[in-house]
Design a protein that fits this description.
heterodimer; A: 256 residues; alpha/beta; Rossmann fold; B: alpha/beta; seven-stranded parallel sheet; five-stranded parallel sheet; 18 strands; globular; binds flavin-adenine dinucleotide
Chain lengths: 256, 310
């Protein structure tokens, strides 16, 4: 950096990170009528998104840049944006939407936002803890015409990116040229915690709320239900019963 | 209902049994079923032409299928696939591909489908704590969980076409790091034996490995085990922040059954739990529970398996 705090000779990267608010993973999910009722559930950032935020911040720290966190949701989701602001994210944007969107609708509005924002790289969690789908990262990349790598467990910054991602029989070390979408697994990443200063700053921060026009969803929710109860299992006392269980795995379960 | 297209699932270059399950799912959705086999060499595709319920096989032949690049695979497959509802497996790679292809076609993707009833699909949400039923209007891409639909048999015989295809590769593999052990990864295995904090030391995982080798199983772990012991890598972790697995048999040893662990394995077909605490929550989910220390139970299990497996 020079005396004016400007980066010289380093690429300044425009980094986006997608975050989502989901029920705390400890929470009990209840159904009322034929829909999940989240009214009494504590909401939190989806666990994998924390790794995405950490990787985005490390990317910035490796050579300068800005990190913008983007979420799609209603005002309740601002809490998650403030949480990542406290960790050091520069800008926070919420695409304002309160209703269900299928993957096509969701990715369309995200692709619009990423294109108009001029980003070089997008980080996201490998899947969200509510749907578990993992469609957003690769789907967004396809719409942008970008490359993507998913479920990465390690990352180094060397102008481009070098990531580790599981592949059949082991791991692949992959070099990625930007622009790209990177979906993040836990791996060896240790996430930072916010400090008091960060939290105070985040309190005052403004969420940039943007209206969206999403295409009509072709997938619609019919109902929610509890998973069918599993019939009570058989329980045996003592180590010797392992023999009975082995026999049941053959005779009853037909597995071995 | 429109035509259905199945993307064949391959494992180590061979046709995976999962493809037969995908054909069953496809036959529930539509009348005709085209199977696309992404391959370097079309000989592997002949296996697909024997699956009952398949109307046509397209061997999509391309160098890009040598290693996975999401953008190139999606392009190479999309180019040769007719329109219709597309079905893939729900392995991590295939879910990624499903999302890519759906986006390419500007249609929606529904992941981890566990039941199909007309155009209504069921998927687990909140890590299996609830089920969501959705209806699809028009074409979609659907990934289907393994070990749910019965596999279609191999009494068919349909036409096969070889089409050369290609796509733009956007990432470059610098290096493949093979796992030191020959054992399967938890995400690939049909049987998994996992250890938790109750194993006491990481060295004791050798007792799990011994049984895994008899069963052709993978060895997994709880987060407590992964976080406590450096020797147990995160790649072994099953659960909310580890891998979601769906094997035929999951054996949990010295694992309490925390909700985040259940999130990754509760949909396993059969669950066996070995735990010294009769009140451990894992027993509520076990088909077969053994209340004992692993020190007592594992040697018996090991020798019983030896005599059963001959
Ligand atoms: C956001 C978040 C994400 C998480 N993600 C995951 C995840 O992906 N995967 C995961 O597993 N956890 C996850 N957890 C942690 C989870 O809450 C539990 O802490 C963890 O699963 C406990 O691991 P455990 O069962 O091995 O250990 P413990 O809960 O300590 O249980 C050990 C068990 O071993 C038994 N035992 C002790 N000695 C013996 C013996 N000699 N023989 C037989 N049994 C014995 C005990 O009775 C006990 O039941 C997550 C938590 C959070 C908050």
């Amino acid at each position: 950096m020079n005396s004016l705090g400007v980066n010289i000779g380093e690429t300044v990267v425009n980094i986006a990170v997608l975050v989502k608010q989901v029920p705390d993973t400890n929470s009990k999910i209840q159904i009322s009528g034929d829909r999940v009722d989240l009214s009494t559930v504590k909401m939190d950032i989806s666990p994998y998104d924390e790794f995405a935020v950490e990787n985005a911040l490390q990317h910035k720290e490796s050579g300068g840049g800005t990190v913008t966190a983007i979420t799609v949701g209603s005002a309740g989701a601002d809490k998650v944006l403030k949480g990542v602001k406290a960790l050091g994210v520069d800008n926070i944007i919420r695409l304002d939407c309160d209703s269900y969107m299928d993957s096509n609708a969701l990715q369309s509005i995200l692709a619009q936002e990423i294109s108009s924002g001029g980003y070089d790289v997008v980080y996201c969690g490998k899947s969200a803890a509510d749907t578990g789908a993992g469609s957003t990262g690769p789907g967004l990349a396809e719409r942008l015409g970008w490359g993507s790598v998913s479920n990465i467990t390690d990352i180094t910054f060397d102008g481009g990116l070098t990531v580790t991602s599981p592949s059949e029989g082991g791991n692949a070390i992959i070099s990625v040229t930007l622009p790209a979408v990177v979906s993040c697994d836990k791996g060896s990443t240790k996430v930072r915690k916010s400090n008091v200063k960060g939290i105070m700053m985040a309190k005052k921060a403004q969420v940039d709320v943007k209206a969206v026009a999403a295409p009509v969803s072709s997938v619609s929710i019919v109902s929610h239900m509890m998973p069918p109860a599993k019939p009570a299992g058989k329980k045996f006392e003592g180590g010797e019963s392992a023999q009975t269980v082995a026999q049941l795995l053959r005779d009853e379960a037909n597995i071995i | 209902m429109s035509d259905t297209i199945v993307i064949a699932e391959l494992s180590k270059g061979k046709m995976s049994h999962t493809t037969n399950e995908l054909v069953t799912a496809a036959n529930k959705l539509g009348t005709s079923c085209t199977v696309i086999v992404p391959c370097l060499d079309s000989s592997v595709a002949t296996d697909a032409s024997k699956i009952s319920g398949v109307t046509k096989v397209i061997a999509a032949k391309s160098d890009v299928f040598a290693s996975y690049d999401a953008a190139a695979w999606a392009e190479a497959i999309d180019t040769v696939a007719p329109s219709g509802t597309m079905i893939t497996s729900a392995s991590a790679q295939s879910k990624d591909l499903a999302a890519r292809i759906a986006a390419r076609r500007s249609i929606s993707v529904v992941q981890d489908v566990i039941s199909i009833d007309g155009t209504t699909l069921s998927t687990p949400i909140y890590s299996g704590k609830a089920i969501q039923n959705v209806s699809i209007n028009g074409d979609a891409v659907i990934s289907v969980r393994a070990n749910i639909f019965p596999p279609s048999d191999n009494n068919g015989n349909c036409e096969m076409q070889v089409i050369d295809t290609t796509g733009n590769v956007s990432t470059a593999i610098k290096e493949m790091v093979q796992r030191a052990s020959q054992r399967l990864d938890v995400s690939e295995a049909n049987i998994i034996i996992s250890g938790g904090r109750g194993m006491g030391t990481p060295a004791n995982f050798s007792h799990l490995e011994e049984i895994a080798d008899k069963l052709g199983a993978a060895v997994g772990a709880s987060r407590a085990a992964v976080d406590t012991w450096d020797e147990i890598p995160h790649s072994m972790q099953v659960g909310q922040t580890g891998k979601t697995v769906n094997p035929n048999l999951y054996i949990a040893v010295g694992i309490s059954g925390a909700i985040q662990h259940l999130a990754g394995m509760r949909s396993s077909k059969y669950i066996v739990a070995i735990n010294k605490d009769a009140d451990a929550p894992i027993f509520q989910h076990a088909d077969y529970g053994i209340v004992a220390t692993w020190e007592e139970a594992l040697p018996v299990l090991s020798s019983s398996l030896s005599s059963l497996l001959g």
